[in-house]
Amino acid sequence: MPPANADVLQGTLDLLILKALSVEPMHGWGVGQRIQQISRDVLQVNQGSLYPALHRLEQRGWIAASWGASDNNRRAKFYRLTATGRKQLQAELATWRRFSAAIELVLAIG
Amino acid sequence: MDRIRGLLVRLRSLWNRTASERDLDDELRFHVAMETEAGEQRGLPADEARRRALVAFGGVERFREETRDTHRPRWLEEARSDLAHGWRLLVSRPGFSIAVILTLGLGIGANTAIFSAVNAVLLRPSPFADPDRLVMIWETDRASGTHHEPASWPDIADIRERSRTLQDVGAMTGRDVTISRPGSGDPERVAGLAITPSLLSVLGVQVIAGRPFTADEGRAGGQRVVLLGEEFWRTQFAADPGIVGRTIMVDERPALVAGVLPAAADLGVRQIHERADYSETFSAAHVDVWLALEPSADSFPRETHPFLTVGRLAPGATVAAAQRELAGIAANLERAYPVNAHRGVNIESYGSVVFGAVRPALVLLFGAVTLLLLVTCANVANLLLARTAARAREVAVRVALGAGRARIGCQFLIESLLFVLLGTAAGVALAFAALHLLITLAPSDVPRIDTASVDGRVLAYSAGTAVLIALFFAALPTLQLRRLDLQHTLKSHGGRLISLGRSARRFQAGVIVAEVAVTVMLVVGAGLLLRSLWRLSQVDPGFDAGQVLEAQYQLPATRYPADYKHFPNFPEIDAFHARLLVAIRAMPGVAAAALAGSPPLDPGFTNSFTIVGREAESAHYPEIRTRFVSPGYLETLRVPLLAGRSIGDGDDGHSPNVVMINGAAARRYFPGADPIGHSISFWGSARRIVGVIGDEKFRGVAAPSEPAAYAPLAQAPPRQATLLVRVSHGDPMALVPGIRAALRGLDPQVPLFDVKPLALEVRSSIAKPRFDAVLLAAFGAVAILLAVIGVYGVLSYTVTERMGELGVRMALGADRWSVVRLVAGMGMGLAGLGVALGVGAAYAGSRLLRSMVFGVTTTDPATFAGVIAIVMLTALAATLEPALRATRADPMQALRAES
Prior knowledge:
The complex is a heterodimer of chains A (110) and B (899).
Chain A: E1 6-7, H1 13-23, E2 26-27, H2 28-38, E3 43-44, H3 47-60, E4 63-69, E5 75-81, H4 83-109
Helix pairs in contact in A: 1-2, 1-4
Chain B: H1 2-15, H2 17-41, H3 46-57, H4 60-71, H5 74-92, H6 94-123, E1 134-141, E2 146-149, H7 153-162, E3 166-174, E4 177-180, E5 188-190, E6 192-195, H8 197-203, E7 209-210, E8 225-229, H9 230-237, E9 247-250, E10 253-261, H10 269-275, E11 289-292, E12 308-313, H11 319-336, E13 343-349, H12 350-355, H13 359-390, H14 392-400, H15 405-441, H16 456-480, H17 486-491, H18 502-538, E14 548-554, H19 571-585, E15 590-596, E16 605-607, E17 610-611, H20 615-618, E18 624-629, H21 633-637, E19 641-644, E20 658-662, H22 663-669, E21 679-682, E22 685-693, E23 708-712, E24 720-727, H23 736-746, E25 752-757, H24 758-764, H25 767-801, H26 803-811, H27 816-845, H28 861-887, H29 891-898
Parallel strand pairs in B: 6-11, 8-10, 18-23, 20-22
Antiparallel strand pairs in B: 1-2, 1-12, 1-13, 3-6, 3-12, 4-5, 4-9, 7-10, 8-11, 9-10, 14-24, 14-25, 15-24, 16-18, 17-21, 19-22, 20-23, 21-22
Helix pairs in contact in B: 1-2, 2-3, 5-15, 6-13, 6-15, 6-16, 7-11, 13-16, 13-18, 13-25, 15-16, 18-25, 18-27, 18-28, 19-23, 25-27, 25-28, 26-29, 27-28
């Protein structure tokens, strides 16, 4: 296991899921893997939070689910971004950027 | 869209719990499998990889719980559990539940059915544009004191031209016609309505196929044009739009079908004809054929009054303004034309003419059925109240465990909703069944009653009622348990009933008193209507309808001309009537047969008349009811001949004019004198009075007999006649095939219609009061039953609850009789108070029935006494079982339990 890893920050998981799904539809396991890979194993998604988050997003109508076959031909539940979800992603991205820029600013000056 | 999809996911998880749970399991299994595979790829042994995958995942149950939480909000979860709890309670005491649901179903069902009728008749939108602007224009005659006479054509034309308060005026008159279709059996007599083309635009109705009449259609000599009624179009022409533009045979002459009018377009036609002092008769449910009428002053002179006139108020004008203006116009016409002497106008709103007669009855029935619903609710409230007492312990436990007031209230609400919803479902099902019966039973002259149905508005009404009832029921136990004593309730013995609080007990007694009071009001109403129905059925119509058959026929004008230059000698018409009578009288089983110009009990028409030699005095007499009858009329109907002779075969168009008058006319116009030998004059010639006969009823059995004159049919032969046949024994209807054959033998193109036993005509003349009385009696009977159950339930509960106390009393030496008196006295006290209140309310309220009773006063002492006796006796019967049970209280057991 890499030495420096972190649990995903509270509140950012939704953003990460939406971002991951904006590329292509994926099943839950794939979403976790994708976030982990792209962050070079810095961000580890706890499965116990991943699935409740996926179901929450589905109920809000930001993502939609359907059953399909995975690469190795198993029955898997695939999630994809809906039009509303895409808008939401933009909004959350903007919020995040403002937020992280603000943090940077405080840290730089402090 | 996406939001809705999310909601669907949530709903699915709520209702289809196992399916969504299975989805979740599948998803987790997939995750673990993928994780295991990844571990194996990193070189771990298979079982180690799987173990790590599971460990990494954490507890599956915790995960499930968290995911599930995202699916269901807390309140939904609670509602679900309350619902399940409520359902278990409902099923655990099926007897109680069925009693509650059926009682509610009865109340709500009766209410829904009557509301459906009210909705169809009074509440549905009018088929006419701006119906509030429509008025009826009647002529009045100060000489005869009439206020609802049809108008003459020249008067209508003058009013139409001069009036500023009326935008336009249209006229109508019923005119039955014969439709013959070559090669399709007997010709058919159908309900026709002749209208001015302007009537359609005055009413604001649109055709559903083809086109309406044009302004110049229907003029004498022009092409004959008709519109078909929707009903007739559907049944006779299979709703074929291709009929428009084709020609059909109307009264044996071709007529062009221009279009089709919707069924609703004839709303009020029948009621308007019935409101008129006299008119052509129109008694069909719908207009089959609409004929164009464009009369001229020549064909309809100012002295004849055949037209029912409808006007549309000009913008801004009121009924009162129209009345003032038209009264002025009528006064001018009176000055200009001698035949208009004493004539005025009477403007009424269209709605009051069409719905005026039926509204009070419907409002009464709706009021009664609402009272019945109140009785139902009172009963159910008492049942629930008793049950809540039994559940006080359950509630106490829940409160002790921390359930809030709102939480408990919410549970009661859901439970009562469950009861009320099931009750409402039962009620609506009942309403569907009852509505059919209601429509069949209803008198046919109630406008639009045949369109009554359980529609959206009715369902919304029932649902609204149900919610109100549910809220009421939910409020009861919540209030009742407000001051629940936790300590006491939790400590009390397990098997014992927990007593109702003082306030709940008082409430329960109040409910019983109110229930009995309302029942008394209902039963008094039913009693009054039943007694007046009995009086009505006992009225002698003046003739004997038993074993008499009546039928009508119509001779076509083409082959049976009436040339008024030779009045009353119409040889073809006369010969047909005479030959038909000969043929009928020759049939086996016929005791007597006769013809009449109008059927018995049909108001027919009236004429102005004078007594020869007393002209000045008789100019101010009201018009006299005029009948035309053939020889044999008195024998066939068994109307007594009081003096002189009856009309004979010799009284025909070539012999001197003669007439019979009835007793009412003799008493009124020849008091203390013998009318025989005097002459009266109408239709331009004097007629010698040869006989005086008994009084027949003309305008229903409730109205007193009016003066009437009977002229020989042969001295004014009508094309439409009523055949009356008395059989010597058996069913008169058995003769119908023979009569049809006889008619066909004389002329195959003459239709026979309105064939029925005369007794049926008499019965249907009191259909309306019978309908009201039967319904109210049914409501009253149900209310009594419910009141009995209510009194019984409360007493029974009280006795069970006070068994201990009663036992102690008996142990201390009270005898059985005093115990019976105690319990019965309690029940009779409540019932007596209820009866007293109910009698008071009924005494004050029964005057609302004044227009609906006949032969009894609305404060009829016998009815009130009977109702008091019935209700008190049934209440007494309800107290018997609990009272007797009380005497079986075992003193020993009571003492042991108290120790």
